[in-house]
Amino acid sequence: MENEINKLIEALTKAKRVKTSKLSDGYHTFCELYDHRNCLFMLLCRMFKDNETIVWRTKYDSENRYMKGWFILGLEYTIPTSAEVKQISYHLPQKFWNKCSFATIIDKSKWNGHTKEDVLKNLIEILSYD
């Protein structure tokens, strides 16, 4: 059933008959949920900035293409029990750029190839660390 609904939403979006950002789960719209996610991630980055973690932002993707209306906010950290440098990054709407003055501006994304699954795993790892 979910696949059919997703296909219908995709078709209606392409036909410009529905705005995905206005869809709701009955409590919040997608737009509201993304704004919450974006603000929580900015807060996490700001808090980590003072903890010897590299926090960066860029308007260019990993292939050095300008992303009109978007930027990438990322953080790089190392769990003390491991020497491996890990990354968490998200694309954020341009409207949040000035809220991220705590992040170093870089010319090109430092994306290390992490996936959305890696990001979730890394967030859970941070939560699990004492």
Structure keywords:
single chain, 130 residues, alpha+beta, four-stranded mixed beta sheet, 4 strands, 35% helix, 19% strand, globular
What does this structure look like?
The structure is a single chain. The chain has three helices and four strands. The chain has a four-stranded mixed β-sheet with strand order 3-2-1-4. Helix content is 35%, strand content 19%. The chain has 130 residues and is of the alpha+beta class. The radius of gyration is 17 Å and the shape is globular. The model has no long low-confidence stretch (mean pLDDT 88). The longest helix has 20 residues, at 30-49. The chain has one domain (38-128).
Describe the structure in brief.
With 130 residues, the protein is an alpha+beta fold. It has helices at 2-14, 30-49, 116-128; strands at residues 54-58, 70-78, 85-93, 104-105. The termini are far apart.
Helix-strand pattern? HHEEEEH
Runs in which pLDDT lies below 50 for 5 or more consecutive residues are none
Strand content: 15-25%
Structural class by helix and strand composition: alpha+beta
Number of structurally distinct domains: 1
Helical proportion, percent range: 25-40%
- How large, in whole angstroms, is the Cα Rg? 17 Å
Distance between the termini: 41 Å
User: Strand order, biggest sheet?
Assistant: 3-2-1-4
- Give the number of helices: 3
Q: Major sheet: size, sense and barrel closure?
A: 4 strands, mixed
Morphology call = globular
Overall average pLDDT: 88
The number of strands is 4
